[in-house]
Each structure stands twice: as C-alpha cells, then as structure tokens.
Amino acid sequence: MRGLLEGPVDVAARALLGALLIRTDAVGARIGRIVEVEAYAGEEDAASHARFGPTRRNRAMYGPPGRAYVYRVYGMHHCLNVVTGPPGEPSAVLVRAVEPVTSIDAMRAARIAAAVAGHRGADPGRAVAENGRIGRLAASSLASGPALVAASFSVGMDDNGADLCAIASPLRLGVEPTVRSDGGTREAECPIVAGPRVGVAYATPPWDAVAWRFWLAGSEALSRPRGALRSGA
DNA sequence: CTACCGATCCCCT
DNA sequence: GGGGATCGGTAGA
Predict the structure, then answer these.
(1) Minimum-distance residue to B13 (CA–C1')
(2) Residues A132-155: pLDDT tens digits?
(3) N or C: which end of chain A has fewer CB atoms below 10 A?
(4) Residues with CB under 7 A from strand C
(5) Residue A150 in 3-state DSSP?
(6) Which is nearest to A171 in space by CA: A56, A9, A14, A27?
(7) Which of chain B's bases lie under 7 Å from a protein CB?
(8) Contact between residue A17 and residue A191 where contact means Cβ atoms under 8 Å apart
(9) pLDDT of residue A233
(10) What is the Cα–Cα distance from A202 to A214, expressed in whole angstroms?
(11) Which nucleotide is nearest to A38 (CA to C1')?
(12) Alpha-carbon distance A198 to A39, whole Å?
C-alpha cells in the first residue's frame, strides 16, 4: 500500500479507492471500504492547504507517504487525509466517503459521540436526539462525507501524523481481495469515475476545476451533493 | 427537489 | 479580523 502512495497524487487517489479503512479502539473494531476521494497536489495546487507553504496545520503533509493528515474544519468537524508523495512534497488524498463493512453499531456509536461532543454545553436532550436521528440512518449514510468518515471512525487531531500503513496502528489502511469467490474482480463491477473537487471555489484556475475527485461508480455510500454539481453517480 | 442559513473556532495570507 | 477540503435543518417551489 505504501508503495502505491509514493507516486503522483492522482494515481495514489485512484489506488485508494476500494482500500479498507480500519479502526481498532475501545469503541469497537470497525472496517469500511473507501469509495470516494479527492487528490490535492503540492504547493502549486491553489486549492491545497499547502498552497502557502509549510505551516503548523499542514505539517503532516510534508511528511512521508502513508501517514495521516487530519485537520479541523468549520470549527467543529475533522477531515482525514492520506499523505502521498516523497517527504518534502506536500500532497495528500482526502477520504470523502466510506462504505461500512463491519461493526456498523460501533460506527453509529462513534457518530453519536462526535455529534454530542461537537456541541457546546451539557444538554441531556442532545444525546437522546442524536441517538434517535443517527439510529435511523441507513448504514450506507453513516460515513458518506469527509466529516462523517472522521466521526464514524473516531478520527481526531490525536491521529494527525499517525502511520496508516503500520499493522499495529489503531487507524490504518488495508487491502481488500480483488478476486471474488465467483472468479470476477471488484474493479470490473466498480469502475472509477472522475469529477471536479468539492468546496474549492476559492482556488484560482485551473485548480478550482481540475477533475481530481474520484469515486466508485454506483456506490450507495457516496457523499451527498450540497447545492451544486454532481455527475456520473 | 433546490436553496439558504447557522453552528463554531482554529488557522492564517 | 476573515474565512473555511462541512453538515443538518428549514423554507419554498
């Protein structure tokens, strides 16, 4: 897996589709399948957090490939990236959506915990409300967005810089068998589709429109379109 | 179905 | 002091 992450970031992003995201902690072991990602290149990418050079926040992006780059967004959510490229080159892949595979209940519990923690003040009714709302969600919707992936897998700033390719890591990547029991391949049933990245209107051309968002066609766990464009899915 | 809005806070140019 | 690699609720067509 780490070898696949050393090359160009768009190639690494495609390689991460279908890979497993694995969390092992007290809440419960969880496994999901990555179905949607976005590639962010180096300092030349006007949409990347590295566009102004190294800062405190983006430090992990400059590290070796296979590490996690976690950041907080909008004051309340977290997003998980997989660092790619050689050390010193700040490219990364944002994990935008994951299809739950095992331990759906643990993912729900993590979602509820994140939702409650994200709100100010102790409100007893909040936990009850979130429990009911999230309990009703379809499994395919639990991690269908970058902040939802982080919440479902209990990803926080503690995971920033963690090695996602170490077998002993509590948060890591895995590879799913590509050959099914009937002899077919998963690639054959899930072609990759490319489209523009989401939420990067602040970037200057051509970086605001480059088709570096990749997803597995037909997946039910893809992120929901907000306001604008959606194609091919 | 689409569109807008508020929440919330750390980071930075 | 401005704004964001988001989400969920609400209003209206």
Answers:
(1) A52
(2) 999 999 999 999 999 999 999 999
(3) C
(4) A 38, 40, 47-50, 58, 61, 69, 73-77, 79, 81, 92, 94, 133, 145-148, 197-200, 202, 223-224, 226
(5) helix
(6) A27
(7) 2-4, 7-13
(8) no
(9) 44
(10) 20
(11) C5
(12) 11
Instruction: State residue A178's pLDDT score.
Output: 67
List for chain A the helix, strand, coil content (%; round to 5): 25, 25, 50
- Average the pLDDT over A187-209 and give the result: 89
Q: Cite the DSSP H helix spans in chain A.
A: 9-16, 104-117, 124-135, 146-152, 186-189
DSSP calls for A89-146: --EEEEEEEEEEEE-HHHHHHHHHHHHHHTSSS--HHHHHHHHHHHHTS-GGGTT-SH
Please report the pLDDT score of residue A230 as a whole number. 40
